[in-house]
Structure formats: structure tokens, C-alpha cells
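The authors assume throughout that readers already know how a fold can be written as C-alpha cells. What matters is that the chain and its backbone geometry are given together, residue for residue. A single example would do more here than another paragraph of explanation. For illustration, here is how one protein appears when written out as sequence plus C-alpha cells.
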Amino acid sequence: MRPIAALTLWLFVIGTSLILGAGLYETLVVVPFWSAGAPASLAEGNPLLQVHIRAGHVFWQYFTPALGLIAVLASVVTLKPAICGHFKTGHRDWPKT
């Protein structure tokens, strides 16, 4: 595999795993904190309950389009030899025994 294709594939795999992990974290940890509506007196004393409602907005608005661009780049780099005709066409010549 060519180095650029391998790099874009690895960036896509790592980015996808980060988005999956962030989505799971937001679903399992962040959303229950603010959706449960803890009393203000309890939330003031516990630093874990002081979660900003905009916690994921900064992450998602930049990381999701970046991962989309990496996916398009990986597709173009990987499929370019097939589109340009750099792969051999026809059948494979097996050695005769």
C-alpha cells in the first residue's frame, strides 16, 4: 500500500474511533448529568456535576467535518489508481507447472 493511502486510512480509523468514544462518553456521562436535573445545592459542591451544557459543541463542530474531509481524501487517494487505469486489466497469468 502506498504511504499516503496508508496514512489517510490510519487517520480515518483513529478519527472514527475518537468520534465513537466521544459519542459514547457524551451519551453515558454528560447527558445524564444535565438531563437528570440535579438540585443546585448538590451541583455546587460536587465538581463532577458542574458540566457545561455546551461541553460537546466545540468538539463536534470541528472534528466531524475534519473526519469527513479525511474520509474523502482517503477515498480519492485509494481509488485514484483504479480510476486512472494504473491497475492491470485482464486475468492474472499463473505460472505453468
User: Anything to note?
Assistant: The helical segments are 3-35, 40-45, 57-84. The CA atoms of residues 43 and 56 lie 19 Å apart. The chain has a mean pLDDT of 76. The chain has three helices and no strands.
